[in-house]
Amino acid sequence: MSAHASTAHGNDEVNYLNWKTGIWSWLTSTDHKRICFLYLFAIMIFFIGGGIAALIMRTELAFAGPTIIKDPHLYNILFTMHGVFMIFLFVVPGIPATLGNFLIPLMIGAKDVAFPRLNLFSFYVYVIGALIGGYAMLNPVDTGWTFYAPYSTTTNTSVSLMVFAAFVLGFSSILTGLNFIVTIHQLRAPGMTWMRLPVFVWASYATAVIQTVATPVVGMTLLLVIAERAFGAGIFDPTKGGDPVLMEHLFWFYSHPVVYIMVLPAFGVVGEIIPVFSRKPLFGYKMVVISSMAIAAVGFIVWAHHMFVAGISDFSAKFFSIVTFLVAIPTAVKVFNWVSTMYKGSISFKTPMLYAMAFVFLFMVAGTTGIYLAMLGVDVYYHDTYFVVAHFHYTIQGGAVIGLIAALHFWFPKMTGKIYSERMARIAFAFLFFGFNLTFIPQFILGMDGMPRRYYDYPVQYQTLHTISTIGAYLNGFGYTFALVNLLWTAKFGKVKAPRNPYNSTSLEWQTASPPVHENFETTPVVDHDPYNYGTHSHA
Amino acid sequence: MSNAAIVDHNVPPGEPPHIHHMDTPTAYGAAKLGMWLFLATEILLFAVMFCSFAIMRYYHLHEFHEASHHLDLRAGALNTAILLFSSYTAAVAVTKAQMGDNRGVVKNFTYSLLCGFGFLIVKSYEYTHKAHEGMFPFVWNSDFYHYKNFLGLYFCMTGLHALHVIIGMAIMFWYGIRPARNNRFSGKYYTPVELSALYWHLVDLIWIYLFPLLYLVG
Amino acid sequence: MAHSHDHSHSGDGHSHGDTLGHVVPVKTFAKVLGALLVLTIITVAAAKIDMGKWNIVGAMVIASIKASLVILVFMHGKYENKIIWTYILIPFILLAIMIGGVFTDDPFRDRIQHFKVTEQAK
Amino acid sequence: MLGLLGEQGSDFAHKVDYAHDVVTIISVVCTVLIVGVMLYFAVIYRQRNGKDHETPAIEGNNTLEVIWTVFPTLVCIWVAWLGYDSFVDLRTPPANAMEVNVTGRKWAWDFQYSNGKKTTSELVVPVGEPVKLIMTSRDVLHSFFVPVMRTKMDVIPGRYTQEWFRPIKTGDFQVFCTEYCGNEHSKMMARLKVLPRAEFERWLADDSEAKKLAAMKPSDMGKQLYVAKSCNTCHSLDGSPKVGPSWLKLYNRQGTLTNGQSYVADHNYIKESILNPSAKIVSGYSAGMMPSYDGQISDVEIESIIEFIKTVDGSQKIEPEVTLPKRQDAGASAASPADRGKALFQDSANACSGCHSIDGSRMSGPSFKGLWGRKEKLADGTEVSVDAAYIKESIWKPQAKVVAGYPPIMPGIYEGKLSEENINDIIEYIKTLQ
User: Fold this and answer.
1) Is the Cβ of A315 closer than 8 Å to some Cβ of chain D?
2) Is A300–C110 a contact, with Cβ atoms under 8 angstroms apart?
3) How many structural domains compose chain A?
4) pLDDT at C2 over 50
């Protein structure tokens, strides 16, 4: 393993971070690596905003009865804000638009994405969407992030603006996905065959397909909500002969696949991290790839499992329950493959590896609790209770967000050229992991006791578990703050320079300078091996 | 363990960024794939309304039948012919561009543009007529209240379609006619013409379904 | 997945001489336009005959023939590669899934008697 | 088995719980196994002394791949079957099930039995017999969730949905609304009261009031309702203006609305005004004073009220009419705080007496008699003892703590209308009503 050939050309002084300076050069940059940072900063604003909303809610819920929020309306606004911020503005663009942007061209050996200007454009579409959403918060929406009709078509909060913001954000998501698909098809370096693509690229490809073809559906659905509000189009409003359940169908047609937009890239991240720190090839690479694509495909035919008690026909419920179980199989396969990769490895516990192992645990919990919700009879009980809340957060926070944090730690040396303090990162990890479980395990139990979600107030018997959950939320929030501050501080003030390939990885993105030069590689790379070229082949 | 061989390939150092980002065939393939992907998203945008139409029609079959008779079939058929013809001229424009005939591109895209205007004029005539009759958003006449589901969808679908017509016209003008007047296109470079035409065909494609659904079978 | 590893070509295997893509003669387009107009007339005529629920089936079949003509010839679909065809077909497949999925619901819903709130009262 | 879901109240609950427990065991075993194996690998294959040791380049193993694709598939089929099986029971009500109509509205549940008996926020059913709920909503989506029965179904406007259960034990159980429906979503609860058969029959047959009404001539029934529904508080029969327009020669009267349009007080107008009072306000009156009677009043009752209105020509005597003092500046003229409170209470502008009796009889709101210091059970199951703070909150924020069994219909118009001083006076008055 060496990078001698390239160090000769390398000029560590000039890289994409400093080859042009000034805010303007960042805001108008079409460099995918810089756009990654634009997104990163933008989404972090909403992560913090959504996080604060969550903490206020948890504080309110710590004790029964009104405590710090006197008006249930404000509580309803907060959970709507939490949902809209976290989903549309943070997690959906989360990994794809940031790390996907940064890594896909590097991993496939391209200079940039296929349409660099479109890439920058989709960032500004995101910004416009975010601004519209921010403007809508002047008369904050209280519908929940699901915008179910007829509540959304009758409430007098600014639903129209907010769903329009979501529509615009969807447009940004579409353009990003489209860009990635074309990039992966057209710009692979010589020798970078499909079966040599890192699993992160595969996961990103699957994600991009979902982004591109699912997002228009929700976009149009939301426009129809606006039409309903504006002139009573009579599609979702039952008083005009419309069908509110149809709106749920169309909404979930996107909003189930969107869960895979969030979590598939995180699968990819874990698939990258575990081989490196185990010094082993990814076990069953082909199956991991196939399972990514299978999850993306199956994701389109399972949406109505969100609606088992929504008044859909029994036939429909039975059909969608059975197909939902199809998701479980490729997901299980992935977990088995990750764990097997560690077999006979040489495992080091750097922070990204800790996050990856935590991910496996959290995702096991998320996946197995998902089974409950796919089972018809049991879901009838659990639907819209705290069990669903906990399951969802295990999937999205424990999956997608932990994946993002893991990825930020893992590729941090490449992105910034600095090395962060391992000790600080581990302390943050400990808080984060412990706090997260402390928040949501009590919520599973609350769900078992029948506690419904979106409740501003609750009967006293639920109080103890709520209090514990609130304490966990604060620890969790502290963990995130600590982790992000550590990274931010290192990026700004860190002294330790990162080498090209601090982990001795064999995948392509580590073979260029840290941070990379403006167009990624000093010379166009030619790929002649698999991304996980670790270990010794036995010549038996 | 093998090396990650990184060999100097073909890019001379000191090139300005992105000019040689892709070679011509790659760029052409990329642009075309990108456009088709975009068209896929457009079709899915309309798919939601087709799906809603199917469900609403299932619930209000009788009303849909009756309401569709209130639409102006002649206007709809005329618009269909206009769009088909414009689609034809747009396709011809691509062939002209491939042959390097820039004047041919201008001529054919101009026909398409004019057809686009014609379509919009007929459409606005229909809309005004509907507004007059009280079958229009904001001025619903309560006599037609039971047609609301059909008309609501009719306006959403045709409205969004008309918006696409306008966007398509803008694209044809900006990326097709304007550069063609400067003789920009040749057999080696005509991607913008092809993409504009693709977009315009999509507008036609959607209408091919909208016309029978809305005007004929209801 | 087994398509060409040679990424640097457009994948369009029908390059003609100087041009990047396939050149379709204008005459072909004219024929297709004629066919499309004839099909439109057929649709309108067919709609005048009352065939019950077969009306919509017929109309959709004719529309799909027209759409195929547009995609295949006007949009050069005939000469495109597998990747592009994948993405041409995906939206139609998804539309079918969407309508199919929603129709597992509505027609199978329980028709509960509209008891009683009103009936009882009267 | 594990009893994770708590008390079982219906006969199919054990089936749901069985499915739940089976999948719990599978889940825990799988998670422990996988995470255990991962940790085991992490320990025994850890890097030693900061140096990598040689690793084998294992790229996969087809046998293993097949096993761990097939095995989860089999488990999934089994688990899917368990879920399916319990669901079939949940969705198959027996043909002989007793039907109860359920209407969800912001933010309470109304129930109607097939004999016409109605309740709000309290569903009473007999033990051991299947009960089928036929449900619809008046406004937005709601969801009727009875945890002990393990069943739940969304309640949809413009459509009927159903759910059923067969209670296996008597007692009081919690009903939640689990589909987000607005501000008081978390207060939209009801009690499920499961009674022994005989007791239920007695309860159901106790329709003395309804029967008496049904036997009457519509206009007489309307007259009775005029008082029973507290219309008299705000609408006079002699043409004198009160909070609302007088009913004297109201039928077919024409006039203008606050928005400048004209109205004719015909059948539709009156019905709409009862159900949706704020829709069309007669010029000179203000919106928000009258609570909606939507869900509080049947069509028949509305008809009879309209019949009664048709007859109002000024000759009517209103027998149980509370003699109301003329509108006055309540604070100034009365001497003691309690007297001032009484005046405020009786002031038709406040219309307290429309819903709160002073003799202990049940009206739309809790009686003021004996209210002070009383322990009230709230709709959310908690208890509150009535003190000054509670009364103040209940006047200013009527929906904050609604007493169990009462609909949350008190209008929130008093904040700003009644000062703190006014409220203290009213409290003093309530104290006298022991």
Assistant:
1) no
2) no
3) 1
4) no
Judge whether A316 and A367 are in contact, CB under 8 Å.
Answer: no
Q: Which residues on D lie below 8 Å from A535 (Cβ)?
A: 54-58
CATH of the domain at A147: 1.20.210.10
Confidence category of residue D1, pLDDT binned at 50, 70, 90: low
User: What pLDDT, on a 0 to 100 scale, did the predictor assign at position B166?
Assistant: 96
- Asked whether residue D3 is assigned to any structural domain, the reply reads no
Q: Which residue of A187, A192, A304 is in closest CB contact with C101?
A: A304
CB contact under 8 A, D112 and C116: yes
pLDDT at B10: 37
pLDDT, mean of residues C75-83: 91
d(CA D261, CA A214): 47
Q: Does D38 touch chain A (CB under 8 A)?
A: yes
Single out the residue in D187, D206, D225 at which a domain terminates.
D206
Tell me whether A14 touches chain B (CB under 8 Å).
no
- The answer to whether residue D6 is domain-embedded is no
Give the tens place of pLDDT for each residue, B4-61: 333 333 333 333 334 446 778 888 889 999 999 999 999 999 999 999 999 998 888 8
Q: Which domain holds residue D181?
A: 98-206
Structure tokens at D378: 């709230």
Do D143 and A384 make contact, defined as CB atoms within 8 angstroms?
yes
C112·D161 Cβ contact <8 A: yes
Q: B1 to chain A: which residues are within 8 Å by CB? A: 1, 506, 533
Contact B26, B133 (CB under 8 A): no
CA distances from A313 to A245, A331, C96, C103, D96 (A): 11, 28, 19, 10, 22
Calpha distance A83→A76 (Å, rounded) = 11
CA B119 to chain A, closest CA, distance in angstroms equals 23
Q: Name, in order, each residue with C-beta under 8 angstroms of B212's C-beta and a sequence gap of 6 or more.
A: C43, C47, C59, C60, C62, C63
CA atoms in the 13 A half-sphere facing the CB of D211: 6
Find out whether A55 and A473 touch, Cβ atoms under 8 Å.
yes
Kindly identify which residue of chain D lies nearest to residue A76, measuring between CA atoms.
D183
Contacts of D87 in chain A (CB under 8 A): 314, 317-318, 321, 376-377, 380
CB contact, 8 Å: A319 with chain D? no
Is residue D58's pLDDT more than 90?
Answer: no
pLDDT tens by residue, A210-267: 999 999 999 999 999 999 888 888 889 888 888 899 999 999 999 999 999 999 999 9
pLDDT value, residue D210: 65
> What interface predicted TM-score (ipTM) does this complex get?
0.88
Q: Is A376 helix (H, G, I), strand (E, B) or coil?
A: helix
The answer to whether position A535 is within a domain reads no
Boundaries of domain holding A246: 31-511
* A488 in any annotated domain: yes
Residue A400's contacts (CB-CB under 8 Å, 6 or more residues apart) are A91, A94, A95, A262, A263, A265, A266
Q: CA of B45, closest CA in chain A: separation in Å?
A: 5
Q: What's the CA gap between A498 and A409, in Å, rounded?
A: 13
> Do D42 and D138 share a structural domain?
no
Give the Cα separation of A524 and A110 in Å (integer). Answer: 8
Which CATH number covers residue D156?
2.60.40.420
pLDDT at A410 over 90: yes
For chain B, domains (ranges, CATH) are: 24-217 (1.20.120.80)
Is A70 part of a structural domain of the chain? yes
Indicate if D85 and D103 belong to the same structural domain: no
Q: State how far the Cα of C13 lies from the Cα of C28, in Å rounded to an integer.
A: 21
